[in-house]
């Protein structure tokens, strides 16, 4: 996949195996997984499997989560992007576009998630012509719930997953389709 998006401070590019160590450092942090099933990774091989999986999504769906790089330093700060969910059911839905992100803890609270989110929504709606973008966040993840509301997502409903955790379902219709 050769898509690269840029914002004022960020470079958004496909995930590569060279991102594995930085992604491992992010995903082994229990704070990063506080609202993500509380399952931090234990070995870099787990992250390598994820990178291979995401690369398969690029081939299958022509989109997926992207490495998010701080332009100023070249640092991997996490991943952001659009995923076509065709591998499981979420809140009774499958075959839908989902927007998501995960950032390493040192990069929280600096506006990077919001900045990347605007770029991805713009790309998804204008270039991919997606009708509806969905997102879901843990009920208690105040920061992510605030970001989704701030970027224009509409809260649709709370739902409970198979493990009994409560999530929020968000959605935004393409503003460029009349």
Structure notes:
It is a single chain. The protein has helices at 20-27, 44-61, 112-127, 142-150, and strands at residues 5-6, 10-14, 65-70, 75-85, 96-103, 132-138, 154-160, 166-173. The strands form two sheets. It has a five-stranded antiparallel sheet, sandwiched between helices. It is an alpha+beta fold.
Layout: helices, strands, pairs:
Blueprint lengths: L4 E2 L3 E5 L5 H8 L16 H18 L3 E6 L4 E11 L10 E8 L8 H16 L4 E7 L3 H9 L3 E7 L5 E8 L5
Antiparallel strand pairs: 1-2, 2-3, 3-4, 4-5, 6-8, 7-8
Give a concise summary.
The protein is an alpha+beta fold and about 180 residues long.
Which residues sit in consecutive blocks of at least 5 with pLDDT less than 50? none
In percent, how helical is the residue content?
25-40%
- Helix-strand makeup class: alpha+beta
The largest pleated sheet is described as: 5 strands, antiparallel
Strand content: 25-35%
**Number of separate strands:** 8
Shape: globular
Distance between the termini: 30 Å
Placed side by side, the strands forming the largest sheet appear as 1-2-3-4-5
Radius of gyration: 15 Å
Structure annotation, total helices: 4
Helix-strand pattern: EEHHEEEHEHEE
Mean pLDDT: 95
């Amino acid at each position: 996949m050769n898509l690269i998006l840029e914002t004022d401070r960020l470079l958004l590019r496909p995930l590569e195996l060279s991102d594995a160590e930085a992604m491992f450092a992010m995903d082994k942090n229990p704070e990063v997984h506080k609202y993500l099933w509380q399952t931090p990774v234990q070995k870099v091989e787990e992250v390598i499997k994820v990178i291979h999986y995401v690369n398969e999504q690029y081939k299958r769906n022509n989109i997926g989560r992207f490495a998010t790089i701080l332009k100023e330093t070249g640092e991997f700060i996490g991943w952001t992007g659009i995923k076509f969910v065709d591998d499981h059911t979420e809140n009774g839905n499958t075959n839908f576009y989902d927007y998501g992100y995960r950032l390493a803890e040192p990069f929280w609270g600096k506006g990077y998630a919001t900045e990347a989110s605007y770029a991805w929504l713009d790309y998804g709606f204008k270039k991919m012509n997606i009708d509806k973008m969905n997102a879901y966040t843990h009920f208690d993840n105040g920061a992510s719930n605030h970001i989704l509301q701030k970027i224009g997502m509409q809260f649709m409903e709370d739902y409970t997953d198979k493990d009994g955790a409560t999530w929020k379902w968000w959605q935004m219709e393409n503003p460029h389709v009349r």
